Amino acid sequence: MGPTTVYSSISPLFKGLGFANIFAQCFIGVYYNIIIAWTIYYLFASFTADLPWQHCNNDYNDQYCFSFSEFKECEALRNNRSQSGLWNNIIYLNRSCIEDPVVLKSVSDNAESWYGSEMMVFDGDSPLKVKCVYTNTTFCDPTVDAASSIRKLFDIPVKMRKSSSAQYLSKSVLNEADSIEPSNFTSISGGLFLSLLAAWIIVFLCCLKGIKSTGKVVYFTAIFPYVVLLILLVRAVTLEGASLGIHFYLVPEWSKLTDIRVWEAAAVQIFFSLSIGGGGLITLSSYNQFHNNILRDTIIVCIGNCMTSFVAGFAIFSVLGFMANELGVDVQDVAKGGTGLAFEAYPDLVTRLPLPTLWAILFFLMLFTLGLDTQFAIVETVLTGILDYCPKLRPMKTLVVAGVCLGGFCFGLPFCCPGGSYLLDLVDYYAASWPYLFIALMEFIIVAYIYGYSNYIDDLFEMTRNSLVFKLKNVMSIFYRFLSPIAIFIILVASWCNFQPLKKGDYIYPEWANAIGWVIALTSILSVPLVAIFLFIQFWLSNQGLGFLDIWRQLTQHTEEWRQNALNSYAVDGESSQYEYRMEGGRRVRIPRSRWEDHCRTERNGPSFVCGLDTFNKEGFSSIFSKGSELDKVPEQQVLSQMF
């Protein structure tokens, strides 16, 4: 059962929320598998004695490339000469260790060329770029003729250094262009093409038999990352300078709380990591037994997710502290998010560890398994939505899976072009931020106000039989009805009001690119009101005698099918059930079993014959109202009149 079926059953008017889930997952699934493709590319590239991003001696490297291993060799040579009392003017510049006096003289004569850069200054409130020349490894002097003040040559300045791993990603793997202009989507990288094809073939094979096949694969893909994470954590915290990163990680900057982008990023991250708002939880949980202990599962998943993130933070920031210590800069100067951390910082780290090839293979294998877990949930959500909407396709599920994977592969090809990384950031921001916030807000509104918070709590108790849900009912209502929806609404509106064009480094996306981003976001968001308007008009045309409020009540009530699993479950539970179901106004309604028993005990004219029936036979309570039961001898109105 996918999100479309769930929302159309709980409140038919909001069927579009299921489409919003599927649209968001389609966009995310396309670009997310690109990340998996990058991982596959790096994984195969790691099977070499010297990792391809380890040195700066490749054709694609420029003069700013900085290889840490080569820099350390140069530094060791310089220290040895100093200790021996020899003349020492060795510098690391232009991807090499320079000690030839002729070359050094050439560098000195062209100091402005080698050490020249740009810096940002403010003219009032307006930022302005001006030229400057580094007079040491950290200070860039904007004054005229600053190069003449250089008395001794030095290594390539810190802020001019481009790591060899970063240039490998941008220049070799991605062949990255300088913008998102259409002209940068005319060629496809052969390596990324094959990696993307492999990624979708793996997803197809794993999803071929549905949850049965993916469930078995997840046993490995969910456990293996923890093993590698533990290994990386132990190694990371023992690195020199790790404490700098840990301090940066644990000490908060309270001023950031006033930045709405921080709140937006935090909300989107927790929604994405817990699969809230994407439909994945709804799809996968529909395979559970009715009485599955969802309270236990929820606590385990939430605590496990947050603790994993917290512990992983030590591994990540220990590495960043180590890199900052080695480079002689602050941690924030090396801290990179997203792909910058996974495909630049960590690959750069493994080149500095013993057995770098082994570390690289373990790390990218971990990323691969982590990505597969998420991609399974995304694809399963899309597949379930398609099969729920077109049940006739169920016998041809293999073809449907193949069609979804083929479509994802074709739509992923633009990401393999030189402008693909810009497109990835565009889709990532617009498809996974506002839609997730909006979907989560609508879920709160539907559960707390349309379906009814009390009904929701009764559902939890009916499934778990745990009285804890009633003890926490009043406390939880504060979050479900007020705090959570209000917080999400404020974040969403503030994010819209403070909207700024998307940026990638210093590059600002053009208006047409941001317009495409808005279309991506609104495809999910507008599906909710548009489908609601369509269903409302459709219902009104077929029932023109009904007024607006009558139609609203009809379309916001849950359907008969909504409680079918409960009826089937109670056919087995028998006397252990906590609720009874009866017909009222042509609909089945649920009442606590204690109220039913009180009715049978306090009936003035004696208990009705309905009270004595074995309503929980193996056919289920619904058989009372079907043909072939004992009640066929009694008029329906008489039955209903004796039931309350």
Structure, described:
The longest helix is centred in the middle third of the chain and has 34 residues. Helices cover 61% and strands 7% of the residues. The C terminus is likely disordered. Helix 10 crosses helix 20 and helix 18 runs parallel beside helix 21. With 644 residues, it is mostly helical. It has 26 helices and eleven strands. The strands form five sheets. It has a three-stranded antiparallel β-sheet. A two-stranded parallel sheet has the order 1-7.
Q: Keywords, please?
A:
644 residues, two-stranded parallel ribbon, disordered C terminus, mainly alpha, elongated
Write the layout of secondary structure elements.
Blueprint: H1 3-10, H2 16-45, E1 65-66, H3 68-84, E2 91-93, E3 96-98, H4 101-109, H5 111-115, E4 116-123, E5 126-134, E6 140-141, E7 162-163, H6 164-173, H7 190-207, H8 211-237, H9 242-250, H10 260-273, H11 280-285, H12 294-327, H13 331-334, H14 339-350, H15 356-389, H16 397-412, H17 420-432, H18 434-464, H19 468-471, H20 473-497, E8 503-504, E9 507-508, H21 511-525, H22 527-542, H23 548-556, H24 564-573, E10 579-584, E11 587-592, H25 593-602, H26 636-642
Helix pairs in contact: 1-2, 2-7, 2-15, 2-16, 2-17, 2-18, 2-21, 2-22, 6-14, 7-16, 8-12, 8-15, 9-12, 10-18, 10-20, 12-14, 14-15, 15-16, 17-21, 18-20, 18-21, 22-23
